[in-house]
Design brief:
With 192 residues, the chain is mostly helical. Helix content is 60%, strand content 5%. The protein is globular and about 55 Å long.
Length: 192
């Protein structure tokens, strides 16, 4: 399916040589395209759909820009930006496929995910998220989860160990989602 946001988003990206954020793209699209504001009556479902359409367009652009112009579209939670292939430093083990989170791309390029997700699914997702951030447990279990052997580690030690393990187990990098969630819960527990 052709995503009508591809061209407007490409225009926005080319106007922002230092990159932009998904939030800034969302704000600009809401101003430029009034229909983008009316994707669903349920506010949470509307936001999900806006997010999905933006990400779908970004991943479509990522593929086409690389194939057609040898431009790499970097998509991350904090910054979305274009880089020329000649500006990308690559090692022998680096390829375009390694620079793209294949699981996220596959999800957002599948229109079936957009079509099948309804207000109840979004509500369930949000409820699981808010339930998941409720901190419970004990200190020893949290320390074990983060593989910390020190009885009273500093906040800096906890943060450093969490970041190390989070990088290894982050789902965006092919890690196990459940392990990553357990790491995050342990980190949150130890920081309260």
């Amino acid at each position: 399916m052709n995503n009508p946001l591809v061209d407007p988003i490409l225009t926005l990206l080319k106007k922002q040589p230092n990159g932009t954020s998904e939030f800034d793209i969302l704000k600009a699209l809401k101003e430029q395209l009034p229909a983008f504001n009316t994707l669903a009556e349920d506010a949470n479902l509307a936001l999900f759909r806006q997010h999905f359409l933006i990400m779908n367009a970004l991943y479509q652009l990522q593929q086409s820009l690389w194939q057609d112009e040898k431009l790499l579209l970097n998509i991350s939670a904090l910054r979305i930006y274009l880089t020329r292939a000649s500006d990308v430093q690559r090692s022998d083990s680096t390829s375009l496929d390694n620079s793209v989170d294949a699981k996220l791309a596959a999800y957002y390029l599948d229109w079936g995910e957009y079509e099948k997700t309804d207000a109840n699914d979004v509500s369930d997702l949000l409820n699981r998220f808010f339930t998941g951030i409720h901190v419970s447990g004990d200190r020893e279990a949290a320390l074990n989860t983060l593989q910390i052997d020190v009885a009273n580690p500093s906040k800096a030690d906890i943060k450093q160990q969490y970041r190390k393990l989070a990088q290894q187990h982050h789902p965006d990098r092919g890690g196990d989602q459940d392990v990553f969630i357990d790491l995050r819960k342990a980190y949150e527990y130890l920081n309260f």
